[in-house]
Amino acid sequence: MDARLNLFGSPVVAKIMKNFIAAGHLLRETDLPYSTLELVNIRASQINGCGVCIDIHTKELAHAGESATRINLVATWRESTVFTEAERAALELAEQGTRMADAAGGVTDEVWENAAKHYSEAQLAALVCAISVINAFNRGNVMVKQPANGDYKVGQLG
């Protein structure tokens, strides 16, 4: 399967993606735990059906030392016992932030307040930005039908 648009060959996309990728790197400089950041990236990508991003973020998280069990159970985090309460709050925030069109009002006060119990204001800001950035990546990849070839190499994006 070929993508509808060559994202890597487009000068327009190259300029914009450079900034999206930079935003992703800046998120790693926050005090949000790296594993939480990547769990959120994986969950939003699962919801959006973005195989490319799932390939990237599962490999990056595994490279950082995360267990295969936790990576494989992200899709079923509600039924799994391997995630902390803080991670569960972040995953719920990611789900509601990703599925905004499915529910009037977007993220509920209950979900926001639960996340706020576990994360500082700076970490919440990082979560909001992370969810926004991964959704932008997901939507672009899904729109152009970017194939997931499984060929991503850890660190490939800098």
Automatic annotation (TrEMBL):
<dbReference type="Pfam" id="PF02627">
    <property type="entry name" value="CMD"/>
</dbReference>
<dbReference type="InterPro" id="IPR004675">
    <property type="entry name" value="AhpD_core"/>
</dbReference>
<dbReference type="InterPro" id="IPR003779">
    <property type="entry name" value="CMD-like"/>
</dbReference>
<dbReference type="InterPro" id="IPR029032">
    <property type="entry name" value="AhpD-like"/>
</dbReference>
<protein>
    <submittedName>
        <fullName>Carboxymuconolactone decarboxylase family protein</fullName>
    </submittedName>
</protein>
<feature type="domain" description="Carboxymuconolactone decarboxylase-like">
    <location>
        <begin position="22"/>
        <end position="95"/>
    </location>
</feature>
